[in-house]
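Researcher: Next sequence.
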Amino acid sequence: MNYLSVENLTHHWGDIQLFDNLTFGVSEGQKIGLIARNGTGKTTLLNILAGVLPNESGQVTYRKGVSVGYLQQLPVLNNDHTVMEEIFASDNPQVIAIKAYEKALSEENHDELGILIEELDKLNAWDYESQVKLILSQLKITNFNQQIGQLSGGQKKRVALANLLINEPQFLILDEPTNHLDLEMIEWLEAYLERSRCTLMMVTHDRYFLDRVCNEIMELADQTIYNYKGNYQNFLEKREERIQTQNAQVDKAKNLLKKEQEWMNRMPQARATKAKYRIDAFYDLKKKADSGTTEQHLELNIQSARLGKKIIECHHVNKAFGNLKILNDFSYKFAQGEKVGIIGKNGTGKTTFLNIITGALEPDSGHLEKGETVVVGHYRQSGMDIDPTKRVLDVISDISEHITLGSGNTMSPAQFLRYFLFPNEMHHVLVEKISGGEKKRLYLMTVLMKNPNFLILDEPTNDLDIFTLSLLEEYLLSFKGCVIIVSHDRYFMDRIVDHLFVFKGEGKIKDFPGNYSAYHEYKLGQEKEQKKLEKVQKEPVKPFPVKEKVRKLTFKEKKEMEKLEKEIEQLNTEKETLENELNSGNLNAEALIEKAKRLSTIIKLVDENEMRWLELSEIEG
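Model: Next structure:
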């Protein structure tokens, strides 16, 4: 069943055409990820589909009766409402029935109450409020009476997301739904959308989220739409094939065009009417030769300053805000080439920690030592604070007129902007006119052009397109200095970091030897063990049975017990070796993951063998 039909949709941004005659459809049950470079019109397209922006030309048609919900990057909410008032300010039939029931109850309108009780039964609305609170709590919204105007931008986005999920529209349109969610929330939302039977179109930079939720990818490129069935990896492969095919066709057209251009130049004017078909074919060919993909490759080969042996050392650092502990006796020495990921729930002090490392915030006690050669580049989650009326070119030229590359060559601000995929026509555009992703890319430029050798990246993946993220990853993998990353992008973390600082709250920081996926697996194992322990503790104590006959171990069981003792000893030895290797700091990322997985297996085997040994020893006793 077709839910949405888009025909010949065209839209301009000033003099730039974002898309031209877009035509596509979305059917019931499809879960589509929309991918495009920043500034090519992803959010504009979603705004048009949701009716927030009018379409210049073409048609956007929804099937009659289909309910549509839209999560914007910056949701518009009523600041005077409380959280619950905002959630209940909707045209959801359950909400309408609940409000009418409460009104009839307050007015003691018994006739109306009888009708409404039947209506609430029919709508299964009696447990609606508990469902609302469950979704809100999953998104870490617990103060239901707090005013919307008092919430941060991230909290507002989560309220808007909760509102959308609670109202359960048939067609969901989501613009960067994982922004402002911590890892637990992202995994919960991922599982929710994976199970949901809704139809979905979303823009996201989170490649794991994209892979696990969507069954189709649409790419907006060259002012048109390309469709790809399957997951993100399949998209990358098929996209590369498309680009190669397009480029081969364009090269062929260009070679043929040279011959036809010579014929056009020689052709006498008088023969023009007789050769009209060939002249028409020439212009068609010229159009084809000029239609090559606009694919550009950004290579982040920026120079970094030389880094000495002494980098940044933390000695017994403590930090608290009132009763909230952020750091408790934290000591650590950063090493050259080290890439650390920071994860933890919102509010555990990740950004505060970064501000202490950079010197923007003083610790309560303890101290930091910084090497003389250290040049810090800090990419802040809040973005850059610049005059929105400045031109894009001025943002770069105000910092430096000469940018040094890794090769030692220099670039002018205009060249540097082109290098970062800002074409000439955008250089004189005001900052307030560019997209959110383009602002983030511009901000990244201002950080890297200062040639840092100690990079601190606080949520660098928010609002950057997937293509820019892939190239940033390649740059960071070859970066010789130190990197600290705070990110909720699991794919990005898995590719870059060697180990993790896990902020557990109350000033506790766990140094985990591995990337996010290794930690996630480790955490699941820990939770499983905890549940097993709780189950054992909850089981009622059984009365001691009266033995009618004492049973002895069989010969086979005695041999099994001896074998188990040897195996347990060998496994514990291997466990100790693995733990020492993981804590040594000498393993590369691949080895760390492999060793962490093996350790998880060993722990499980030891538990199983010890349990069986105990069973046998009870018989023997």
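Model: Residues 232-266 form the longest helix (35 residues). The chain is about 45% helix and 20% strand.
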